[in-house]
């Protein structure tokens, strides 16, 4: 038997073993899962894992930057920051008095906005309003107990308190000892029942600085924003998660409260709980704490559909930094039958040192120092982008890298991948997904993510099985369908002198 056949046999045996073991575990795993929906529409998914006395919690709000409209871009990200500012009872010395100040601040902020919009501005009036606003902000600070929410969690043994916002959703996470289940119920339900957007205007300034640092002062940040803007002319995926600076400057607390009331309601929330828990106790406490939150109908999904491109789109960003190349192709959402094919295609083309792009551009041609590929940008809920990138080596150019990438893409269209390469890619792609389930948090997040985006957490495991069924014909077919010039977006950093 030849060397190639021996390698293929070893890989095949490993794949069969992995599949058989995983299938057995999945059958047992389902016995550990409990799911229920409260009367107000809030969904809970619980997984029992009693190996250690800890629990991971994730509350996933089905709202992200994709749900914003022009004028309030960045507002979903603002709520990531607001989640730690406390409630009517946490984070304040006297909420009733604090509320009066906050309401007055909202009133003055609106007056400032109105004055700034006038064609004939009154500088003295504007200065007086800004001074009054500044005084109110200082007065509001006297009622704030800084980071009280976080201190409570930390004092009770909690770790990993965090939140993150994406184009598709917003997640709130932390871990607690298993005897603190009711504490989580109390704190988390209070966040959604009695939110107080305190320090709202101060936090907006923090986010604006974040934008300056991550987007406006970073070459790749500027490029990615321009890249998305030309990739989407209709769909809101074209707006950066952090939002536009002018929107961040003018968003009001009143607008934020309206956004909260529409999207952060029980029917739009899904909770994942993984660890040393008793599902019956979880359900009992969930009814006590979370059913008291009033709900409403789940918000409708985004209806705007990005029309097909009529030709290649290109954008350049001039910057003193090193050259960078981005190439994107429109592709379907996570629920499309070819989603597994794109995952395998990513592995073959641009994931890690074994990928075709790395071997060709970095090791053989030595024209790039870094290359890669990833599907699902900026999100997966709606049709998105398959993106390839390259950072040219010293003395080489974006144009060289672009040409070499297209050569590798053409090979995928014209020549079937070998069974050996395909099997290796499928093993890596499946192992990649399975690896994300190794921790309590990873498991909780992936299950909730698939529940919200696909309608059933079980699709997480079905997606792993779907990878096994991908064929060489699938790879060639999808490469031909997706990697077309008319479907292509190209963005690049063009290096210029800093003196320009």
Radius of gyration: 25 Å
Binned, the helix content reads 40-55%
Strand content: 15-25%
Kindly state the number of beta strands: 11
Order of helices and strands: HEEEHHHHEEHHHHHEHEEHHEEHHHHHE
Give the CATH level 1 class of the largest domain: Alpha Beta
Q: Please count the helical segments.
A: 18
Straight-line distance between termini:
64 Å
> Would you identify the CATH H-level superfamily of the largest domain?
Metalloenzyme, LuxS/M16 peptidase-like
What's the number of domains? 3
Layout of helices and strands, plus pairs?
Blueprint: H1 3-29, E1 33-37, E2 43-48, E3 54-61, H2 75-82, H3 95-117, H4 123-141, H5 148-155, E4 159-165, E5 170-177, H6 181-193, H7 200-216, H8 219-231, H9 245-250, H10 253-263, E6 269-275, H11 279-289, E7 313-319, E8 325-331, H12 339-350, H13 356-364, E9 368-377, E10 384-392, H14 398-414, H15 419-435, H16 440-454, H17 459-468, H18 472-482, E11 488-495
Helix pairs in contact: 1-15, 3-4, 6-11, 12-15, 12-17, 12-18, 13-14, 14-18, 15-17
Short précis:
This protein is of the alpha+beta class and 500 residues long. The chain has helices at 3-29, 75-82, 95-117, 123-141, 148-155, 181-193, 200-216, 219-231, 245-250, 253-263, 279-289, 339-350, 356-364, 398-414, 419-435, 440-454, 459-468, 472-482; strands at residues 33-37, 43-48, 54-61, 159-165, 170-177, 269-275, 313-319, 325-331, 368-377, 384-392, 488-495. Helix 12 packs across helix 17, helix 12 packs across helix 18 (472-482) and helix 13 (356-364) packs across helix 14 (398-414).
